[in-house]
Design goal:
Length: about 170
């Protein structure tokens, strides 16, 4: 699956360090200290776009809300996608911008929406916004929904601290 999924911690930390540097942040506190990314949006970066996507080479995941597509990116190269997605509807729009993956939960259930299942949840934005498995034919409450196999792929690929760009 490319260099991003290398098993060595050094490879992952190198990628995170590049994301922090690209965001204009310094030190481990930018990654939340103990490996948990901060909940605030990341700063935009001045970087080239990845061919075929609307996102920069700093991104690990890219979502086009209007195009209803998402990609996984490794060092500026698309390694998966585009895949179909749905996002938030009127009044519950998916936030746009750059974010860091905060945490993951394979079997998450929503406390806000009657214990609704959110399999393969990868949380990246304030307010509990995540990638997760779900119906891509209807709008969400702000999350980015993916078909089951794609949600599993995003869950395995993305790591805490990885940059997610939503445009």
């Amino acid at each position: 699956m490319g260099r991003h999924r290398a098993s060595s911690t050094a490879g992952t930390l190198g990628r995170k360090a590049r994301a922090v540097a690209a965001a204009g942040l310094t030190g481990l506190s930018a990654l939340g200290g103990a490996g948990v990314a901060h909940a605030e949006p990341l700063r935009p970066v001045e970087a080239p776009l990845v061919d075929g996507t609307p996102c920069t080479i700093a991104a690990a995941a890219c979502v086009s809300v209007d195009g209803k597509q998402a990609w996984l990116i490794d060092d500026g190269v698309v390694v998966h996608g585009p895949v179909p997605v749905s996002s938030g509807g009127p009044g519950m729009e998916t936030p746009r911008g750059a974010f860091g993956v905060e945490w993951k939960n394979r079997h998450h259930r929503s406390a806000e929406f009657n214990n609704a299942p959110m399999p393969y949840a990868v949380f990246f934005a304030p307010g509990g916004i995540a990638f997760h498995e779900g119906n891509t034919e209807t709008t969400s409450a702000g999350c980015v929904r993916l078909p089951r196999a794609e949600a599993a792929h995003f869950y395995e690929y993305l790591q805490v601290g990885d940059r997610v760009e939503i445009v």
